[in-house]
Amino acid sequence: MLELESAIFFTFKSLGREKIPKIIEYSLISRTEEFDIFNLGFGTYNKFERKVLDGEVSNNGDVFKVFNTILSSIPLFFSLEPNALLMISGSDSGEQYVSRCRISCTKNCDGLCRNENRRINIYKKYVEKNYDSLSGAYRFFGSRFSWDEQMTFEPFQIGISYRSIFIKKI
Q1: Which residues lie below 8 Å from residue 143, measured CB to CB, with a gap of 6+?
Q2: Cβ distance 132 to 105 under 8 Å?
Q3: What gap in Å lies between CA 6 and CA 24, rounded to an integer?
Q4: Between the N and C ends of the chain, which has fewer C-beta atoms within 10 Å?
Q5: What is the pLDDT of residue 72?
Q6: Based on the number of CB atoms within 10 Å of its own CB, is 89 exposed (0-12), middle (13-18) or buried (19 or more)?
Q7: pLDDT tens digits for range 50-85
């Protein structure tokens, strides 16, 4: 783990069919009077470009180990930034993603893109499944976009579709 001015990184290797370097990046995206807001980013680490490739899907056969590694970093993050608000969203959400996906899609989606929102839905399902045990340590909020594309922010509710999930340590 290394800490920079505006980001905290955790690195590990995906050990499925190949050894793939992965990185979890908690980047500072905004400061308010109450707290700093960080975004959780994750992806393959490209050491030559020194950046996180969050749009790649490696299909390395160890998705549950990788997901649990990401989740295990959240308490570590809050131990370093106890007053932060953490935002989780998917790099596969939104119109730009859908436009890029349609170029090389092999699923022949009619209408709705089947790949859109997969990542945020994984986190949402995890929170829903474990809400009772997690809510003793964390507060959860969901955000959606309203009709005029303004972000709304509300207490997390099971069964609601969100574009982002926010987590605050109690």
Answers
A1: 151, 152, 153, 154, 162, 163, 164, 165, 166
A2: no
A3: 14
A4: C
A5: 94
A6: buried
A7: 777 776 778 888 888 998 999 999 999 999 999 999
Residues 118, 120: Cα–Cα separation, whole Å: 6
Those residues of the chain that have pLDDT short of 50 are 1-4
Domains of the chain, by residue range, sit at 1-89
Tokens 């090389």 found at: 104
DSSP summary character for residue 94:
S
Residue 10: what residue type? F
The pTM is what? 0.81
101 and 116 Cβ atoms separated by less than 8 Å: yes
42: CB partners within 8 A, 6+ apart = 22, 23, 24, 25, 52, 54, 70
